[in-house]
Amino acid sequence: MGCASSFPGKNVGRSGSLNGEQTVANDPKNIRVKLVLLGDSGVGKSCIVLRFVRGQFDPTSKVTVGASFLSQTIALQDSTTVKFEIWDTAGQERYAALAPLYYRGAAVAVVVYDITSPDSFLKAQYWVKELQKHGSPDIVMALVGNKADLHENRKVSAQDAMEYAEKNGMFFIETSAKTADNINQLFEGTGIYLYRNKTQLSWITCNNRPKCRSCICCYEVP
Amino acid sequence: MDGGGGGGGGASDAFGSSTAPLAWHDFLERMRHPSAADFVKSIKSFIVSFSNRAPDPEKDSAAVQEFLASMEGAFRAHMLWAGSSEEELESAGEGLEKYVMTKLFNRAFASLPEDVQRDEELFEKMALLQQFIRPENLDIKPQFQNETSWLLAQKELQKINMYKAPRDKLVCILNCCRVINNLLLNVSISSNENPPGADEFLPVLIYVTVKANPPQLHSNLVYIQRYRRQSRLVSEAAYFFTNILSTESFIWSINGEALTMDETEFQKKMESSRAHLLGLSINTEENRNQTTENIIEHSIDTSRSQGESQSQVYVRENKDHEKAEQNASRPPSISDLETKGVADLVKEDELTEYFKEYPYLYASAGDLTVDDVESLLSCYKTLVLKYVSLCKGMGSNASTFLELSIRTDSKLENELASSKIDHYSLDNSSMDVTPNDSLAHRDAKLEILEGHDGKDKGPIKLKGNLSDNSTVAALHHAEHKVTEKQDVIQ
Question: Per the record, where are the segments of Basic and acidic residues compositional bias (chain B) (predicted)?
């Protein structure tokens, strides 16, 4: 994918899977999180990720990479780092049945809709129900209304969405991948939420589960 | 947040194959060291004990995963790797995985009849779908459609059967995904589209997979799933592997609705693809060499001058077929009639109706019981009789198609009536059936040739030349499919 050359020298040691496991296992300060993106096609899932990972929106930029899988590490205030491994899913109706393969083992599900499209909001609600039925009971869900910059075309009120999110125990935020509004807040908030709720650290992916007792993601907090 | 920087992609870290040969060599070198004698002993004993057990996918997978993990732990504690970096230990683990799985390949790959059957079904489904599936059917936007460039991705995927180690097979999938991502990215840049995400990627991967139709795809995927060390099947590799798994899952479930097509229209297209493949297999003469014995059955609608009744013509392809080809050039030859019949059949709406009364047409050898042999043989005799009579009626020599020494028709009739099969003889050695062949013997032979026995499997090009997919699919389709002997390379 040529991604490596797009990110010269940054976090190379941690980005590969070869050391990744050890890094997590040996160091509780480095948390690895599988995050899955769900939502109708065209709501801007991949733009949100690119904005987060690259800090820019310009799709014509030569350094843009394919955004179906990306990872990004953030540092929290106490220098704990959270590495997000972001799994995009195809949002078209015909691929809906495949989603469980992707959200299996995910610590976070970010459900995205477009604030100018009521249909995409309905679709988001469908995903929330799916996750409640078939996802891990511990999964952290975020509801994201994207394209907030197009407020003159708004069709889904923030109030409605927030109420829906609250009712379903979700984290809610409106973002604009175009202006970068709230993009970092989305991921940072998710990271803090995961980190603070240490009692539920089993959310975080570890491939040695359930046998592993040595890494942060598997030991039981008293 | 003081962003920790991008760890994006990381493909070259996880799967850069540039260092792989070195690591492999290094592993073998270390194993030759006298102090590694105990390792060599445990590896060998693991391989022997594993090989001697009956296949059981769950137990097998757990046994390999446990063995690899414990050996990696032992490497870490051993003086051979004293002072080694994590990378070196990791590549020792890679080397071990490759060594063990290469040795266990014949025993562990496609070793269950269920997997073999799923391979065949999936292969056939893709062979049919690839005849008519269009990028639009999968929601691939016009600007992203580029069938020529996708061939590159198909090629990467088709390499999957060239390797035995799980990692090497996985790399083929990863490379295929990488090619697709690059192509999508180039288009998005040049056409000012949003950067390609999964909405763009997955449909192209599905399309490329159907078009590539790598033989034994299902077995390859479960093999990677079971035997690729789990701690290394993470992150980006896990993501793209999940994509190919969901591709397989999608292809299984493809129906009219999944392609935004009317269900009856979909069924019609599947049927005509099937008939098309059958037709192709008659005409593609070069493709015959891949099997020592292919029996292709074709039902054709021969409306001859005297009778309107449908007749069955069974064509037996074998090494002597060339002769037949020469004779067949005299018009109107049997094969002309056959071609015409197939073409007519393709146009039929109720194609399946024609095959309804032939219960064995869609059976695979595993479905058959010893009790079926008698009725099969009697069907066979009837068909041969009809075929030979037809040929005679056409004025051509039957033995050009089937070198059979059949006694007089009346004698054959008698035998059919009395079902005394042991007196019936086929004198063609290419059929491998001698007059004294016992049924049990014949059954056992079929079993082996069907490839249920792992030993018969070659690692490379298991189903013949990749470009001959359609013919192979047609062969699959035929009832006696496949008594194919596969090239065992190495």
Answer: 316-325
Which tokens belong to A177? 């991948």
| Helix, strand, coil content of chain B in percent (nearest 5) | 65, 5, 30
State which H helix or E strand residue A174 sits in: strand A171-174
Cβ proximity of B27 and B72 under 8 Å? no
Q: At CA B107, angle to CA B102 and CA B113, rounded to 5?
A: 135
DSSP B54-113: PP-HHHHHHHHHHHHHHHHHHHHHSGGGTT--HHHHHHHHHHHHHHHHHHHHHHHTT-SH
3-state secondary structure of B401: coil
Task: Give the CATH architecture of domain A29-203.
Answer: 3-Layer(aba) Sandwich (3.40)
A182 in the Ramachandran plot: left (φ > 0), alpha (ψ -120 to 50) or beta? left
Q: Tell me the domain boundaries of chain A.
A: 29-203
CB contacts, 8 Å: A23 with chain B: none
Mutate to test the interface with B, among A1, A12, A183 (most CBs of B within 10 A): A1
Option in B10, B181, B203 nearest A16 (CB): B10
For residue B299, the one-letter residue type is S
Query: Count of CB contacts below 8 A, A vs B?
Result: 221
Element (H, E) at B300: strand B294-300
Query: Could you tell me which residues come within 8 angstroms of residue B170 by beta carbon, excluding any fewer than 6 positions away?
Result: B15, B224, B228, B233, B237, B241
Q: What are phi and psi of B419, to 5 degrees?
A: 55, 30
Give the span between the Cα atoms of B419 and B411, in whole angstroms.
Answer: 12
- Which residues from A are below 8 Å from B13, CB to CB? 4, 12, 15-18
Can you give the pLDDT of all 222 residues of chain A as single tens digits? 322 222 223 333 333 332 333 223 335 678 889 999 999 999 999 899 988 988 745 544 444 456 799 988 888 777 888 889 999 999 999 999 999 999 999 999 999 999 999 999 999 999 999 999 999 988 999 999 999 999 999 999 999 999 999 999 888 999 999 899 999 889 988 887 777 654 343 333 334 444 433 333 333 322
B98 sits in the region (left: phi over 0; alpha: psi -120 to 50; else beta) called alpha
- Exposed / middle / buried, residue A142 (Cβ in 10 Å: 0-12, 13-18, 19+): buried
Query: In which residue are the tokens 């013949």 written?
Result: B464
A80 touches B at CB < 8 Å: no
Amino acid occupying residue B324:
A
> What ipTM was reported for this prediction?
0.78
Q: Where are the domains of chain B?
A: 13-108, 118-261, 267-477
pLDDT digits (tens, 9 = 90+) for B333-391: 666 666 667 666 666 666 666 666 666 766 667 777 777 777 778 777 777 777 777 77
Residue B255 CB-density burial (10 A; 0-12 exposed, 13-18 middle, 19+ buried)? exposed
Provide the phi-psi class of B16: left if phi over 0, else alpha when psi is between -120 and 50, else beta: beta
Cα B306 from Cα B389, distance rounded (Å) = 14
Q: Is the backbone of residue B165 left (phi > 0), alpha (psi -120 to 50) or beta?
A: beta
Class of domain B118-261: mainly alpha
Amino acid, single-letter form, for residue B344: D
Rounded CA gap, B416 and B427, in Å? Answer: 18
Interface test with A, best of B235, B245, B257 (most A CBs within 10 A): B235
b/e per residue, A4-40, with b = 16+ CB within 10 A? bebbeebbbebbbbbbbbebbbeeeebbbbbbbbbbb
